[in-house]
What we know:
The structure is a single chain. By secondary structure, this protein is an alpha/beta fold. Helix content is 30%, strand content 19%. The protein is built from 14 helices and 14 strands. Strand 10 and strand 11 form a beta hairpin. Helix 12 (303-315) packs antiparallel against helix 14. The radius of gyration is 22 Å and the shape is globular. Residues 214-243 form the 4Fe-4S ferredoxin-type domain. It holds the Pfam family DUF362. InterPro entries: 4Fe4S_Fe-S-bd, DUF362.
Amino acid sequence: MSSSVYFGSARQARLVAEETLPAKLDLIIDRLHLRERVKGETVALKIHTGNHIGYSMIHPVFLRKVVQAIREGGGKPFAVDVDWDVAGAETRGYTTEVLGCPIYPSAGLSERHFYAHEHPFKNIKTWKVAGLIEEASFLVNFAHAKGHPACSYGGAFKNLALGCMVGETRGQMHDTVHFDRYWFAERCPDSDTRKRILEACPHNGIVEDKFDPTELHLHFDECNNCGRCLQVAPEGSLKIDAVNFDAFQEAMAISTSITMSTFAPEKMVHLVLATQITPVCDCFGFTSMPVLPDAGIFGSDDIVALDQAVLDVTAKTPLIEENVPTSMEIYSHEGHPLQWLHGTLKDPYKVVEYGAALGLGSREYELVDVLPVEKIAPASLGYISAKSN
Ligand code: SF4
């Protein structure tokens, strides 16, 4: 079954406020009937406030509109993020006064307030959902779309998957990439060859183990799957394989499904702002130049359809290659433009594929433009050529 994804394009016909993204968010809030759905609800607004000197997270103008709508509908909103991002959030403009609601660390000041869920997956047994999120009765998931070094793209899934778990679980999720073996030391006993493997990588994507020099570790965030190391490694000693990269994406889908299982299906709304799409996520604590043009704002009840739509819309525009940091390398133009940047094995669609398989939503969707960009009609006098000087 196809889901509705409401969309406000970043493009506009006229230079008027009504055609800009905050106004289009109002239209999306109306289409999602947010006000009508939150009466008496305790509403967790899951945001990411970034850290340090980042400035590309969702601007408070957007967040305040959501908070206002929740209040108008009779809900009790509070914003949540992980503890180390909430500490200092005011330096990036996120305060109670600005947002219109309190902002809390989702698992308490020391991340001791959580609910454990058993779900064995690779190295993870127990998933710890932040207490304030699980205790809320309604969830608004408002994510910023950007690149991500482990999976190419971070959007609605990532905002819940990483942002609703405590640090211990977040760390375990990142470690899932190491679960399936990729280095077979017995097939490369020679230290000179191991050295050459490390030297083949221009991205510090593969390093020696701190305690055992015969063991090599892949840095999955840095590795862009260029394959240079494989040309040096003896046959069968090293794998650069989708199974490792996909593990993180599957972990994100499982994590999201666990958090979502604590809410009734009709008690969740998902929003994505796809502007200032930087190469890496807002966790890095800084903002770099955008690598994709602003796409707009998206909203849906269906998280799968939503991230699928954001990926499909952003896939139509090429990477702004002149904005790519010089330390990054584009060696392939295969797949989504964010894959060009991060590596062909970091397929951003994987998370929606896993999410759909877990029953979180549909990859089929109808994109409903809430204010299509008007084509301005030519002058009515017939054809008059524009003056060229
Ligand atoms: S595939 Fe390329 S980026 Fe990845 S570790 Fe090997 S050489 Fe480095």
